[in-house]
Structures are given as C-alpha cells and as structure tokens.
Amino acid sequence: MPHMTHISALCCMLFAYLLLGVSYYGWGRVAAFCLGVSNEKPESFALPVWLGWAFTLLLFQIAHFFFSLTAYVSIPVFALGFVFAILQTRPGVRSYFVSQGELILLAIGVVLFLGVAVWIASRSMLPPTHWDLGLYYLNTIRWINTYPIVPGLGNLHGRLAFNHSFFTYVAALNLYPYFGHGCSLANSFLFLIVLATLFPSVASVIRQPSRLMLEHPFRYISDLFLLPILVFIALFSDGIASATADLASALLQLTMFILLAHGIAEWLQGQKAQRYRATVLVVLAATAVTVKLSNLAFSSVILGFTSAYAWRTSHPSSLKGVFRFLMPAVLAIPVWCLRGIILSGVPLFPSTIGWVAVDWAVPKEKIIDTANWVYSWARMPRVPWQDVLSSWAWLNPWLHRIAKYHRIDVIYPVLWTASFCLIAAGVARLTKARRPYDLEWAILLPPVASLVYWFFTAPDPRFSAACFFLAAISSILLFFVAAQGNIRRGMFIVTVGTIFCMGSVLLLSNAFIHNRKILQVSNAGWHVIPAASLNRRITVSGFAVYTPRRGDACWDSPLPCTPYFDAHLRLRVPGRMVSGFTVQKEK
Asked: At 214, is the secondary structure helix, strand, or coil?
C-alpha cells in the first residue's frame, strides 16, 4: 500500500508540474504582450514560463491585500493561464517542433526530463529538514492562506515580517484547504524550469559539438557548466522539500546568469535585437529582490546591464526609454514594499529605513535587534550579537567553520575563480590570443558584487545562493574566451571536456562519498509535517496566543502562534484577527 500511495502522489505531482508549466506559459504570453515583446520569439519555451511565474506572483501579492489565498483565488488564476496557453500558442508550439526537427533527440530529451522530474518529485516529498520551515516558513504560509495581509504581523513574530514573496507563491500552490503540498511543489517546479531553460543549448551541443568552438564561449559552455551545479543542488540542498527562499534565490540567479551570458555573447556577435531576453531579465531581477532581500546586489547589477542595453538600443537614447524598459521593476518593487509596510511598518524589514509611524509598526528597537541577530548569527551562531558585532573576533572562527564544512560550495569555487581569472589574463598577455573585452570581464560583476554584499551583511554560506559557483563559472568562461583563438578546434573541445570533468568531479565528490543520497527519495508519498506541542497563553489585553512547549518551532500550528510571547501584544480591533497586531498601549 505505501507504494500505491507514492505512485498516486507522484502522478499528482507530475500532473501539477504539467498544469503549472502550461498555465505559467499562458500568463507569460499575456505578460509579453503587455510589455510589448510578444512579437519576438524567445530562445526557449522556458522563458515565457519564467515570465508568467513572475507575473502571477505579482498578481497573488496584489490579491493578498484583499483576500486570503485559498483555492478560490488560486484555481481561477491558474485556470485562466491554462486557457491563455491553449488559445494563443497551439500553432506556435507545433511550428517550433517541426522547424527544430531532430524528433529522436527531442523524444530522448523528453524521456530524460520525465525521469528527472520523477526523481525530483520523489525527493520533494521527503520529510523537511530545514529548521526555519518550522520556525516561521509554515506559519507565514498559513497566515497567507487564512487571512488577507495582516497589519503588524511582525509584532507577533519578527520573522513573519520578512516579507518573502516566495511564500505567497507557496501559499497559492497549496490550493488551500484541498491540497496542502505547496512546499513540495514550489522549489521542485522551479528546479525543473531551470533545467528546461538549459535544454535547448545542451541539445544543440549534443547534436553539434563543434558549436563549442564556433560560437562565443558564453553561449553554450555556460549552460554546460551549470549542469553539475544543478545535480549538486538536487542532491544536497534541503530546499527541495522545505520550500526555502534560499534555494529559490539560487535558481533565479542561475537563470539570470545564463540569460546574461547569452546576451553578452550575441551582443558581441552583432545581434542587438534582444528585447525579449532583456525584459525577462528585468522581471526576474525585480522578482528576485522580492523573493529575498539578499538578492539585492545581484539583481541591481542585472538591472544595470539591462538599463545599459535599453540606453544603447532606444532611439533616441534617453532616460525615458530606460525608465519605460524598467517598468516591470517599477511596478513590482513598490507593491512588495507596501506589503512590508503593512506587515511591520517598514518597507525593507529588518531595516529601519522608511519606518512609518503607524499604530501597527514594529518598534524600531525590536527591528534593530532582529537585524543584529541576523547579522551576528551568520557570523557566529548562538553568541549574543553585542559580542559578535562589536569587533572582528568572529572572523577567525568563521573562516575555520567555512574551511571545515564548506569546501565544496565555498572553498573550491573561490580557488577556481582566482586560478582561472589569473590564467585567462596570463593566456591573453603571453600568447596571440585576444584579451577578453570589458563587457566579457563584466560577467563577474553579478556574483562578485553579491558576495561583497553578502560578506558585509549576513555571511552564512546558505545566504550566498549560487554566487560562489557562478563566480567560478565566470572565470572559466573568461579562460575559454582567451584560449578560443589560440587552440585548434579539436583540442579546444577536449579542453572544455577536461575542465568540465575536473569541475564535476570536485563538485560531485560528495555524491560518490554519500552515494545513498541518490536513492534517498520518498517511497510512501508525502511525509507528514511535524507537529508542535503548544501552550495557550493570555496577554494583558486578554488575547490568547499559542507558544511551543519546547524549542522555538511552531511548525504548521493553529494561529496565532509565536515562540516569542509578548504580554503587551494585542489586536488592533478586539476579536478581529485580520485587523492586525500592535504592542502600543491603548490611549
């Protein structure tokens, strides 16, 4: 019976992937029309899906101002996207595949993709292991499913004010109260969309390996070197089953990096018409900031690239043309900031910048304390922030911890980045090979800028998303740019294969050591989310709040629940939870 349960759950997940992909594709076509790029053909069918995903995420955030995100909100949105896809794209899909030919290769690719989807779906149904899922992820999602956005929710539990739009996405997938497995769907679906984004390029290389030599290295080699990273993520990330915004951030960064690399390669080859790709980059960059604020530096650099593109291609070049091009970001960021103000009184919690003196605002001292704990915990866990942030004494233990526990995801990428940047510069200087252009060196900017921002804010490796890996890949690409004109075609392809294998062995060495990871999948459907044993406590105003009896994890508990009981907490309107929370004393 457990196997039958798993088969039915697996079929449900695969069917959900298909429906979501089609629905997001339909919404992506609508978004492309609204943004004026519907006449351009995307390089991959995954790009409209990304565009539709970001567009519907914005719709759900707006809808949550007025409604709880139940099935009665989610299903119409997804169904409408499905209708859009059927009405608009059926001839386009047929002509695309006919023009591509190579039906055997396509069939093999579909079978392999289906196999990966089955494995990823089975891993996504494993028991969650990410501690923050119990601490506040599930509680945040339950609030979104149960009520419209609640003013001052950060007064109940500071982490409920973090305002990750990713949880709005997960809540929409729950189809509350009928499905409830959005945590399994969320990141596993995004993982498959990243894989689908790489598929056309990888298939082209398999069909014609000489493309690696004939085309700019940024065009195909970049996609090839992302595959081991995806395998590493699938094996060792706990976000597949835990609906963490950290993994979503990594997947978004991988996608933006690939689109940027392709864009630079085609620009240098004289292909200036890239408005669709640039539009998707703008949308994903803005969305990534709303998914998690730690993406701010990475997204800012991406928006800088797209702004430069808009300036160079608008006629005449003007700030007005740039502003029009950045309109998706101009729309998405204010909506997200308004949600932050409603949740905590500040747009960028846990920053006090823009603090609004409303009655539901989280007190400034509490916001500062939360921020300091975030910054200090990333440097030295379980030590009072006053001790950590007062000096650089944390640096040495932090380096030892990184060296001991993060060789694969931090140490090796740093060494590869430094080595290949030096080799690229040396090859260009000592041989007849051309030096990489400034625009090619700029491929390093998104990951490096993000890592600088990461180091001076919250330098926990999980907050770095994919930036260490992307910095290493950038340096490898620069080496191939310098070496491409200096090595014969056959030897160049051998060099690509050799470095690919070396990087893969280093990256996947843990997979050989911990080979059980590959077989670590659910065989009994969705595992039950742990439950917390709760106490019921009463505030001074007579308001009842649940608190965990042990630890600080509420898991998917009844509302309201918080591990941090505040006797002064009260409802803004007695008896109405949706009115919000405040800790201000009644006048």
From this structure: helix
Give the CA-trace dihedral at 243, 247, 253, 255, to 10 degrees.
-70
- Among 461, 487, 519, where does a domain finish? 519
Residues 535 and 515 in one domain: no
Domain assignment present for residue 346? The answer is yes
First to last CA, the chain: 61
Return the higher-pLDDT residue of 505 and 453. Answer: 453
Tokens of 79: 């169904």
Angle (CA) 30-34-37 rounded to 5° is 90
pLDDT in tens, 308-321: 998 888 776 667 77
Tell me the C-alpha distance between 261 and 279, whole Å. 15
Amino acid 433: pLDDT: 60
What are the tens digits of pLDDT across the range 374-412?
Answer: 999 999 998 999 999 999 999 999 999 999 999 889 999
Higher confidence at residue 440 or residue 94? 440
Tokens 């965990």, residue located: 548
Span 46-63, average pLDDT: 97
In DSSP terms, 581 is beta-bridged to 571
CA dist 556 and 534 (Å) reads 11
94 pLDDT more than 50: no
Instruction: Quote the domain boundaries for residue 415.
Output: 395-519
* One domain for residues 208 and 309: yes
Do residues 194 and 301 share a domain?
yes
| Residue 489 pLDDT grade (very low, low, confident, very high; cuts 50, 70, 90) | confident
Does position 90 have pLDDT exceeding 60, yes or no? no
Task: Quote the CA–CA distance of 381 and 452 in Å, as a whole number.
Answer: 21
Residue type for position 465: A
| 291 and 258 housed in the same domain | yes
Nearest by Cα to 458 from 371, 393, 539: 371
What are the pLDDT digits (tens) for 281-337?
Answer: 999 999 999 999 999 999 999 999 999 998 888 776 667 777 878 888 888 999 999
> At 314, which amino acid appears?
S
535, 512: one domain = no
Angle CA 487–412–490, to nearest 5? 15
Looking at the structure, tell me whether residues 121 and 218 fall in a common domain: yes
pTM above 0.85, yes or no: yes
Look at residue 423 and tell me if it is in a domain: yes
Is residue 368 domain-resident? no
Overall number of domains in the chain:
3
List the beta strands (DSSP E) in 437-527: none
DSSP states of 558-580: SSSB-SS--TT-EESSTT-GGG-
* One domain, residues 504 and 541: no
Contact 398, 379 (CB under 8 A): yes
What values do phi and psi take at 546, rounded to 5?
Answer: -90, 140
Are 394 and 380 in contact, with CB atoms under 8 Å apart? yes
Indicate whether 389 belongs to any domain.
no
